[in-house]
Amino acid sequence: MTTQQLTQQIKKKNSFLCIGLDVDLNKIPKHLLKDEDPIFAFNKAIIDATHHLCVAYKPNTAFYEAYGLKGWKALEKTIMYLNVKYPEIFTIADAKRGDIGNTSTMYAKAFFEDLAFDSVTVAPYMGKDSIEPFLAFENKHTIMLALTSNEGAFDFQTKMVAGKELYKQVLETSKSWKNSENLMYVVGATKAEYLADIRNIIPDSFLLVPGIGAQGGNLQDVCKYGMNDSVGLLINSSRGVIYASQNEDFAEVAAEKARELQEQMEIILSK
Ligand SMILES: O=C(O)c1cc(=O)[nH]c(=O)n1[C@@H]1O[C@H](COP(=O)(O)O)[C@@H](O)[C@H]1O
Known about the structure:
Its EC number is 4.1.1.23. This protein is an alpha/beta fold.
């Protein structure tokens, strides 16, 4: 999917919501545990109930890898289900990869070719030759951590390096990489006050913004400082949507939570 197609979907649905599929078997409704594949059964129900309210889904691979082969199988079934039934949805493998070049190429193949995700998250720590193998894939997007939502973001990301905060160095340097037009960036919703500075460096790029809901980030602040002419934002909520109810009505209640966020987004988009 191209970024133009993503923007079209945002305008059509009046939503720039991304729903995080972070499935924890201890948190899903008990009746699903009897299913042959509880993770996929949960995802399918959530997706069927919410696909019209969001433009993207983001399974965090940790929640699948934790269950071994069964978890990876459920991830594969989930992405196949999305690609076949809802091909207009933008898909994000939240895997936070990045390694020496030949290894990064294999990670990219795993998520872009084998699983056919539209995008994957990566960490910038190993630099240009760890990210360019991902950027080489046409019509695929590489979402690089810039300023993360957690407290530990202040350990390194905001430290001064050669007269500038490290996250700013990351943003600026990455613009010179080959196929950098395939980059998007992660900025935590809890860091909304940094977004004006970030937009000065990367005015046109899409930002994946996790951290509203459970982590306390604020949608209005993120939009005020982070939105550009083509919206340029994907706002993620995982736990706040998918675990709103742990009863049999879980998918319905998740849809209500997603609807609340979509309606706030519609108001922001109409301004
Ligand atoms: O890359 C991410 O998606 C990410 C980056 C970040 O800075 N903070 C962050 O919370 N995330 C992910 O976004 C999701 C947030 O989940 P909730 O806090 O439940 O909405 C999790 O999958 C996190 O791993």
